[in-house]
Amino acid sequence: MSLSLHYLFRFLPLYLHMCMALVSPRLRGTYKFWFALTFVLLVCGYHMSFTIVQKEEIDDFWETYKEKPLEGRNIILASMCPQVYGLYVVKMAVTLVLIGGVQRKDEGGTRVRGEPHLLLVGDPGTGKSQFLKFASKLMPRSVLTTGIGSTSAGLTVTAVKDSGEWQLEAGALVLADGGLCAIDEFNSIREHDRASIHEAMEQQTISVAKAGLVCKLNCRTSILAATNPKGKYDPNESLSVNVALASPLLSRFDLLLVLLDTHNEDWDRIVSSFILHGKTLDSVSASEELFSMNKLQGYISLVKTIQPQMTTDSNRILTRYYQLQRQADTRNAARTTIRLLESLVRLAQAHARLMYRTQVTAEDAIVAVTLIESSMHVRISLWLGPMPLLFFLFPSLLFSALLFS
């Protein structure tokens, strides 16, 4: 499915030209008309056949893991950026951001976005750019850029004068409309982009009033950003201070994950063995079980068509967690707003899609709460004790890692 979409985007001008030939009275009955009709029917037929085959493959996969669905989910997560060892929570977060939640409109007609945003903050060498590159390759429509931007348009939009006339030049967020915008070095974005990116991330539009041109451009995209801390990360300071970004901008990210490269002898030995010899600790990482790039693209495109509905149990869990966060004495005022509840809903819906379900269950709500907890703390408190995100392995690898060390 996604493969046909990939080629459709690549040959979109040719496809549109053929469609115009079909409706042109001047070309009707000519060889150009019949050639265009054949081309369009072949594209549509290939798309439908590929979709049917892909759906049957996915149905067989989940039928195999009907009794142990979490193991099936972990195979999909292990297929995300397989060249990076471990980082279970990060791979889960990136996958849910790519899948996204369900967009809806409230009673006033205001559109509530369904696309989550993720910011990776970490020391150099923790794999942030690898996730950005892999995600941009995975999505049929994506833009990979840096905070500084490669053109004068930057991330939003700018007005340029060409041949005596003013024209709008689209930036990365506008070009990625309907897809993914991966931004590296997010803390180096231009000042004029910082003012307009607030609207782009929440309302998913960019209002333009430049050189007599007044319009509103759509940027319905998920943002996957990465940045380094300003100097050495200080756990005693807030995230806003560590990355030199304002709290209103950080509050628009659904997830903020901090990856610190702390010294750990056992972890260094395991990772070096993985890089040099390709040794893994569990069958989940076996290459024959992982999804290929094309299969992963098709799966994400397929589950994005599912519209999961919230259930009573999931609503109760998310509502209670939101209330407890609001009542906590040590709460972060910038994070515990109504945006927190909206983020929980988006992540729970995305996990339901990942699990190939039409309803958001209590399990999906618990996963959403776990991810939000991971983004609020540098370390995750488990039965093993506080563990940095960088050292967090897949659940099936935890015991193996302890035995290996």
Task: Please explain how this structure is put together.
The chain is of the alpha/beta class and 405 residues long. The protein starts with a helix and ends with a helix. A five-stranded parallel sheet has the order 4-7-10-3-11. The N terminus and C terminus are likely disordered.
Annotation keywords:
disordered N terminus, two-stranded antiparallel sheet, disordered C terminus, 405 residues
Briefly summarize what is shown:
This protein has 405 residues and is an alpha/beta fold. It is built from 16 helices and 15 strands.
Helical residues, percent: 40-55%
Low-confidence stretches: 1-18, 281-288, 379-385, 397-405
Instruction: Describe the main β-sheet briefly.
Output: 5 strands, parallel
Number of helices: 16
Mean pLDDT: 77
What's the total count of β strands?
Answer: 15
* General form: globular
Rg for CA atoms = 23 Å
Q: How do the strands line up in the largest sheet?
A: 4-7-10-3-11
The end-to-end span amounts to: 43 Å
Structural class: alpha/beta
Strand content: 15-25%
